[in-house]
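Tutorial handout. Part one gives the primary structure; part two gives the three-dimensional structure as tokens.
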Amino acid sequence: MKLSELPRRIAATVERVEDQVPNDAIARRLRELGFVRGERVEVMAAGPVAAEPLLVQIGFTRFALRRSEAARVRVVADNGAVEVPA
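Part two.
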């Protein structure tokens, strides 16, 4: 499932960050910020307009991500949350 599809307050584990184009600068930056395989991540809140941006916590750090950025991060929900088919 994509991080942008993860329900709020459900812990998940990062599988990978997908490049949308060759040498994707946004995907590379997400990996530099700590969105790497095996890290725990959680969507803490969503903004008031179109649920954007998403407030995402990885480790003890929180980031505001656009939904398009969060969609690059593939995750697996830790507590048996149902995966939404693509």
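Part three, for discussion. The mean pLDDT is 92. DSSP finds two helices and five strands in the chain.
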